[in-house]
Amino acid sequence: MRALSNSLEDIGETKEALKLREKTLATSKQMLGKKHPDTLTAMHTLANSYSGMGREKEALELLEKTVRMSRQVLEARRQVFDEEHSETLLSMENIAISYSKMGRVKEALELEEKALATHKQVMGEKHPTTLRSMEILAITYSEMRREKEARELREEAKAAKSRALSTKHLNA
User: Fold this and answer.
1) In the Cβ-directed half-sphere of 41, how many Cα atoms lie within 13 Å?
2) What is the distance between the alpha carbons of residues 9 and 53, in angstroms, rounded to a whole number?
3) d(CA 98, CA 40)
């Protein structure tokens, strides 16, 4: 349903995409529960749709609710897994992205920097998840008008991708 709603939005059918995203969220809550990661993703996606349609108040309310639930999920994951587990880091990044969309960039920055440092330590600098984390942090740096740091991080990610690709081709 998520892919279909994205396709609808891509072809300009924003009202139909919004209806489908609302249905997706309702179904996800019913089938998976309010705090399931897929439900939280559906909430975040719906909030983005509201924002894109100029319904900022609804978008902000839904993002705030998403962050509250996501923080509970993060704490549960910290108890079940450890701070370095990929699911824990994914929760941190999802909260950070929501914080950015809410204008809470300092809080987003704190989580993103911690997630990136952990990704680098655990998975290495060439891992796709680490590179994605670098790109997310670069966006936040740009939002904070820290263009030099954003550019440096993007260049670092690009260089790491190039090294990873060239290594794959050499080994093929």
Assistant:
1) 11
2) 11
3) 11
Residues 47 and 66 sit within 8 Å (Cβ to Cβ): yes
Total-model pTM: 0.72
- Rounded to an integer, what distance in angstroms lies between the CA atom of residue 53 and that of residue 16? 12
Note the pLDDT of residue 81. 82
State how far the Cα of 30 lies from the Cα of 35, in Å rounded to an integer.
11
Burial of 67-90, coded b for 16+ CB within 10 Å and e otherwise, reads bebbeebbeebeeeeeeeeeebbb
- pLDDT(169) > 80: no
Cβ proximity of 137 and 113 under 8 Å: yes
- CA–CA dist 3, 66 (Å, integer): 21
